[in-house]
Amino acid sequence: MTAADRTFETELETWRAQRLKALTSEDGWLSVCGLIWIEPGRWRFGSAQDNDILIEKLPPHAGVLTLDDDGSARVALSAAGGTIGGEAVPEGPLVDDRDAARPPTRVAFGTVSFHLIDREGRKALRARDSESPIRTGFAGLDHFDADPAFRIEADWVAVDPPRVFEVDSIVGISSTVAVTHKAVFYHDGAQYTLWPTHGSAAAPMFVLRDTTAGKETYGAARFLSGFFEEDRPGRIVLDFNRAINPPCAFTPAATCPLPPEENRLPFPIRAGEKKPRD
User: Fold this and answer.
1) What does the DSSP assignment read for 158-214?
2) Any bridge partners for residue 114, and if so which?
3) Where are the alpha helices (DSSP H) in 103-169?
4) Which superkingdom (predicted)?
């Protein structure tokens, strides 16, 4: 094994350990246990059957959430032991997750919490339980063998004007995304293009599917975040060994995007995460 191979495998092992730690953390995707869509109005929440919103393990009558027509929301707690945004206060505003730079306000009682999400103007509560059976019974991640051939340097090509995509999601809510760059690469002598419809400028994310989908890998899609190296301007690294299952592979309470037609590759990528175990 060459020094380059050892470096590749060491970096991949470190990355996989970080991925597993994030996924299985008390606040990771395995703790997500509920997705409740709401409309403007007054919503009583708790574990008792006479609530408008039922969330297990909350106090029987935990409080009231009010959503206004303009999308603003507030919550008032009626049971002891709860927090709003980490503070033991009786009421306060609920900030949703539209602004990535500002975390949403979390309402918590013990191991259970929820926060407000926004999907193209539609609001929902995302509930978490750090003791969710999905998390406590998680059997681990399966991967294809590490393959340096699937660590591909692609051309990072600017697109002017930006390419506009209508991106569908697993819950049937679509969004319009303007993409300013594309990744162009070669595999087995043929040229392919991937479009980063998500992520950030520093870490563009590709929602993709290949011919292993539904058999060896999760059927809807996998996610791949590209990265840049300082000494390689105009290039982006697509390390398919770091292709991961989306949150919706682990919980039905996720709202994952689906791959655009252009990101459905006509060959197998036997690298990265395999589909989750039953």
Assistant:
1) EEEEEEEEEE-BTTS--EEEEEEEEEEEEETTEEEEE---EE-SSSEEEEEB-TTBT
2) 107, 127
3) 133-136
4) Bacteria
